[in-house]
Amino acid sequence: MPELPWIFTRLDFRAIIDIFAVALIFFGVLWVAQGTRATQLIRGLLILIVVVVGVANIFNLTALKWLLDKALPALIISVPVVFQPELRRALEQLGHTGSWLRPPFTAAAETDLESTVEEISRAAVQLSRHRYGALIVIERETGLQDYVDRGVPLDATLTRQLLINIFYPNSPLHDGAVIVRNDRILAASCVLPLSDNVATGGQLGTRHRAAMGITEESDAIAVVVSEETGQIAVAHNGRLYRNLDPERLRKVLRTLLRLDRPERTIRRRVRLNGPPPPADGLGDNRERAPEDGARTATRAD
Ligand SMILES: Nc1ncnc2c1ncn2[C@@H]1O[C@H](COP(=O)(O)OP(=O)(O)OP(=O)(O)O)[C@@H](O)[C@H]1O
């Protein structure tokens, strides 16, 4: 019987788990970096390391090898600094993985959110008609209290009339963002972090960059009405879904806030004795709908 290559002789159960764990870490890193500016940074870093290590070894350059020996640990230490936003988002996502264990919103909160979507959608349409600029952030699981505290506290019931009043040009609260929790406006005139997205930063104004910025740092949803064009956009997860009409705005918000969850659709249809839901609409409705509902999606990369 031919001898097994030495590598297979050392392959036991522990080694398989070891390889699997390393592969999982690499997969996780690439998955988190996918579609963000970290992709280019990782690619640049890999090209740099491969070229420099290759040149140093091929030509046996002692000084370059010494520099590599000293610089590589520093490069590794710099990773958490350079990838701070991505790491933060990854850890937050990890923290959210437990949310499937419980329903995303309680029954009371669901009613609140129904009215929140309705009021924000109607306000956005009116603001857009009048070309009043607006920025409305809906808090989800990541707390936005830091930003609330730095704004003007309101703690008022969310109504479209109040939103329109807040963003009425030159009103005392029109500058900055409104932050909403369930069916309440917590604060107005809040200053949000600006996205430093290189690809879109040059094209977008600060209102849109602030909308993208807060959704890069949290799982919040931001609705933007452009003062310049009247266009309505929704930012989520660092992406901007632009040029939404009222119907699409409502659909995107409902989907992102999980008000159109497939299970609920099924329950509602069963109650109404309607036809069963189409099989293809069940699995990925939540992920797909924002893409369907948007004409342009700008990704933060
Ligand atoms: N960091 C920030 N946080 C919250 N709101 C901000 C921030 N920066 C700017 N804004 C809001 O954006 C307004 C300026 O918008 P600007 O014209 O620069 O952006 P824009 O994306 O082009 O928006 P528009 O299409 O409405 O003109 C400010 O008056 C302020 O209300």
Automatic annotation (TrEMBL):
Q: Which UniProt keywords apply?
A: ATP-binding, Cell membrane, Membrane, Nucleotide-binding, Nucleotidyltransferase, Transferase, Transmembrane, Transmembrane helix
Documented EC number(s): 2.7.7.85
Q: What class of enzyme is it?
A: transferase
Residue ranges of the DAC domain? 84-246
Q: According to the UniProt record, where is the region Disordered?
A: 270-301
Give the Pfam families listed for this entry: CdaA_N, DAC
**Where in this chain does the entry annotate a coiled-coil region?**
none
Question: Where does this protein have compositionally biased stretches of type Basic and acidic residues?
Answer: 283-301
Catalysed reaction(s) here are:
2 ATP = 3',3'-c-di-AMP + 2 diphosphate
Keyword Ion transport attributed: no
Q: Which Gene3D superfamilies match?
A: DNA integrity scanning protein, DisA, N-terminal domain
Q: Which biological processes are named by the entry's GO terms? A: cAMP biosynthetic process
MF annotations from Gene Ontology: adenylate cyclase activity; ATP binding; diadenylate cyclase activity
Q: Which domain of life is it from?
A: Bacteria
Q: Decide whether keyword Endoplasmic reticulum is in the record.
A: no
The membrane spanning regions, by residue number, are 15-33, 45-68
Q: What interactions and quaternary structure are annotated?
A: Probably a homodimer.
In the record, the note on similarity to other proteins reads: Belongs to the adenylate cyclase family. DacA/CdaA subfamily.
Described by its record, this protein's role is as follows: Catalyzes the condensation of 2 ATP molecules into cyclic di-AMP (c-di-AMP), a second messenger used to regulate differing processes in different bacteria.
User: Entry's HAMAP family?
Assistant: DacA
| Record protein name field | Diadenylate cyclase
Q: Which organism is it from?
A: Sphaerobacter thermophilus (strain ATCC 49802 / DSM 20745 / KCCM 41009 / NCIMB 13125 / S 6022)
